[in-house]
Amino acid sequence: MQDTISFTPQLAASPIAEMLWLIPAVPMVAAGMAALLKQVKRKTSATLAIGSMSVSLLLSLAAFAHVLSGWAHGVAVRETVNFTWIQVGAANVDLGWVLDPLSAVMLVMVSFVGLLIFIYSIGYMKRDENYTRFFCFMTLFAGAMLGVVIANSILLLFMCWELVGLTSYLLIGFWYQKPAAAAAAKKAFLTTRIGDVFFLLGMVWLFAQTGTLLFYNNGAGSIEAGALAGLLAQPAALGLTAAGAIGLLIFAGAAGKSGQFPLHTWLPDAMEGPTPVSALIHAATMVAAGVYLIARVYPLMQAGALAGGTTTALTVVTWVGAFTAVFAALIAVAQNDIKRILAYSTISQLGYMMAGLGMGGVAVGMFHLITHAFFKALLFLGAGSVIHGCHGEQDVRHMGGLKSDMPITFLTYAIGMLALCGFPIFFSGFWSKDGILEAAWHWSVAKTPFCMLIFGALLTAFYMTRQVVYVFGGHWRGRKSAHESPTVMTVPLAILAFFTMALGLIGTPAWPWFRAFLNGRATSFDLHGLMEPGLLTLMGASALVVFLGLGLGWRIYGDRSPKPSEPDALERISPPVWAALHDKLYVDEFYSVTVIPFYGWWARVADWLDRRVWGGVVAGVAWGFGLSARLNRFLDNNIVDGGFDKGCDELSVGGGLLARVQTGRVQTYLRILALAVVVLIAILFWSSRA
Amino acid sequence: MSGIHLLTLLTVLPLVGAAIALVASKHARGVALITTLISLALALVVWTQLPANGGYGLVEQHVWAPSLGFNYYLGVDGLSALMLVLSAIVTLMSVDAAHRVHHQPGLYFALVLTLEAGLFGSFTALNFFHWFLFWELSLIPAFFLIKLWGGARRGPAAMQFFVYTMSGSVVLLVAFLAVFLSTGSMDFPHLTLLASTGELEQMVTAHLGPVMLWLAIGVLAGFAVKVPMIPFHTWLPAAYAEAPSPVTMLLTGAMSKMGVYGLLRIALPLFGHQISQMRTPLLALAVATVVMGAWAAAAQKDLKRIFAYMSVNHLGYCLLGIFALAVPAAGAAAQTSQAMALNGVILQMFNHGLTAAALFWFVAMIQQRTGGHRGTDQFGGLGKPAPALFGLMSIALFSSLGLPGLNGFVGEFLIFRGVFPLAWVAATVSILGLLVTAAVILTVIQKVFTGPVPEHCVGFPDLHHSERMALIPVIGLMILLGLLPQLIVESVNPTVVNIMAHWRF
């Protein structure tokens, strides 16, 4: 175990930390400018997008270099710049940003992957009539996402988080004339908003309890030791401390964005958006924002844990993550849409990240987040290239044999696929997933998550083999023949493929650089890290599982190119299981008989209450007034003796007036009101003189 | 400031404008535009003249009828000045939106300007009698605007609106007469002072017996109708739907704020203790207003009724914030929460006014293009033929949804932040409202703007240049206030601090 670098409080932020706000601001301004462009200014909008992302990337790299040099000199950099947004009462509503290893790593990843995907989009969206709008939304997304990354204030994070949700909505519904796209956009926004309202509650609770919105503020931040001690001392319901309860509320928000069960159903539908959107937002960055959020508030999630122990919040994170990992992998096995397979795979991998956070800590979860961002972006862009080459076809049964038609796509896709499966040694996915499995193996609470994650790895290798065999193996089964994509699309693929392999180097047990960097520790290259007996066994086991999955996939789907009309090989083995998996284990169906009717039912109740009950009371009162007025007049006219008549005149007028009000002649009433006002004013003048 | 009676000038100006508009007939809209523009400028001048300590500024005080407690007593603090600016903006928007009034334009714009005078008068009054006159004065033009220029079922709608609000007013008047009989004063600052020391309750009890709670109920009822609070809201959907859209803009943008204003200016300062006693049922009603308002919106198919119920929902957050203030709590942390909630309520008043008025403006534009259609299932795919309408209206809709970065979010955030520590159950249940509103708004976008373009919507005219130019400042303000709410809060917060120092529950 290496020693932790002593934390040096930063009294003044460095120039690069001061400038950090530019990283999200530049794309946002570019988006604002693009919004004012006419649709025909295609080049300008693409230039704005790519130019602003390049600036962000350069600044991110500079920020990263700064943190890196601090780390190399034994300083754990955490520089914050905070300012007051609103002053309320005697308190402040503060915003701010933070530069630390976590945000630096994430900044580089988001801006780099984002830039590659923007470049790719030039080719992919070439023929779209709303090209300008596309780049405007994408740039806005990038700005908002980078804002989430740098936020040092939970409020700023939340605001950018919601903007990210908005751009996701806009981009899923980009082809809004397709009803399916419009519906998917709405579903995505609403499902994630379910999580977000809990996040909002967690945020206001944290703010109220700690008195600050800032994460770090030289010891006075909400997730620093002082505040956490207060949160732990505060009991909430169900045996939770306030820290635990707030942690769970925030996790609900994270689960919505990161597609964790049971809020995952929006993510597959989100594939209605253009493929670069799926790659950037629904694979590499936005969906990872939930994981990032948990990593950001990790001190809160972990508060109260004894050495080596866990907390309720982290236990929940772990179980939800592990369950999601297996659940989504199962569904992915039986999908035929190339993007939906990847979408379920993304959900599953997000589950791995969450489980990694829950059991292994920030570095374990974040490493998988980073490697996944590269290989999943690669896979989605590869899928986009395939769809592009197949003239919009997305059903893998209608593809086949593309390895010769689209060689670059095939090669890069295969790299991404092997990384996703966790193929040993050469692929980053192997190392990042192994970190999670290792943490699961050592988890003190239960071994079940470990078994679930191992099973998930088997499924992953299996469904990816199935997909690749369908798409690239066998012979062509589609209509028009396929073609390779243009260079502007294949170059980003190649770059992503390179990093998919190279990134593994920084996270091996022999040189756990990534972990050391995030945790602010020193590290060195040491092959003995690999030689721990338990670790080797674990790696061997996980490699074995991957080979098993690959072999099983190959054996079942092999090189046989089934006709699109034929039932799937698995369907022949077990029709009911296939049907259940193919129908996504009926979660959507479950919601459509529970949540959606509940919503509609309450809407009808509210409407009925309005029209019948409250409206009825009003009508009843009005009717009662009318009746009493008429009764009054009747009494006056017929029963009461003449001697009373004079005295009752006023009453009669009153009653008659009310009756008339009921018949709609308000003018009469107004006339009387006006008269009354005149009389009143006369009295006033008279009395003021007196 | 005694040289120029700025507040009197502000109130009289629209009345003068109204008189001119009445005779200007064809040029009435021009007169109204000029009048409202000057009014806005004056309101902004008032906004800049606020005293830094959060107390009343620009005070004008003349003895009127001392034996009856009537004083000509005007003054503004951060709260009322903000309402002045809002009223001026909304009236300007409304006049701008009403460029198709063919039937008696002179009378129409004269009534609109009279309504504006009523708003100004009631937001500047510091004496009950004075305030009450203008409160009623605003009601009468609103009634006629609905009654004479409204939709097919305008008669019953106008009547219900009038009788309902009038009944509320009567209760208010009676309650205040009781207060006057006991204290001999109708001035708000004086009564607030008496209430803060507990003398008010003693005096009322000494004169009239233990009626203070009943008086509080009466006052609350008067305001509950105006805001409105469920279940006193049934006049609202009909009135909002039947009124011509520019008038609905006034009703929701400005007049609904009179109720919330009354709660803040009159009910809480004078009857804080009684409200505190009733806080549980009141909070429950506020939550019902938030949640059921949103759900009732979900059941509607008419754009105006949807937005009407959404107004109920949004003002429900104001009620939630206000009644949470009555929860007994002591200490610096509780004070911070109360200040958050109160600032949030006031921001929400302004932001809701701006956004809701804008939404009804969009409805007016859609109606002009379709010959009056405004059912959500009567359109589809409008995003294609009318991208500018789609874009700008979506911004207003997302502001209404409470999207961060736009004005609607800030008030809601502060309210939730304030209410949660004071009344966490109410806050937690109310988040349902946030969800349902989002669903309603996204459904509106989905039904109106997305999907294939039906045949009758092909060639749907997009916003023309003048409409865009008129809308851009409004939309720009939504973005500006979403990013820099401090622009408002810096003038409101001193008033909040000042108000809270004088309240006693």
What does this structure look like?
The complex is a heterodimer of chains A (690) and B (505). In chain A, 71% of the residues lie in helices and 3% in strands. Chain A is mainly alpha-helical. In chain A, a hairpin with a 2-residue loop joins strand 1 and strand 2. In chain A, helix 16 (362-389) runs antiparallel to helix 21 and helix 16 (362-389) packs across helix 22 (513-519). The radius of gyration of chain A is 32 Å and the shape is globular. The N and C termini of chain A lie far apart (95 Å). In chain A, 55% of the residues are buried. Mean pLDDT of chain A is 83; it is low at 1-7 and 660-664. With 505 residues, chain B is mainly α. Chain B has a domain at 278-505. Helix content of chain B is 76%, strand content 3%. Chain B contains 19 helices and two strands. In chain B, strands 1-2 form a two-stranded antiparallel ribbon. In chain B, a hairpin with a 4-residue loop joins strand 1 and strand 2 (70-76). In chain B, helix 2 packs antiparallel against helix 3 (78-97), helix 2 runs parallel beside helix 4 (105-124) and helix 6 (154-183) crosses helix 10 (235-242). The interface between A and B is large, with 66 and 82 residues.
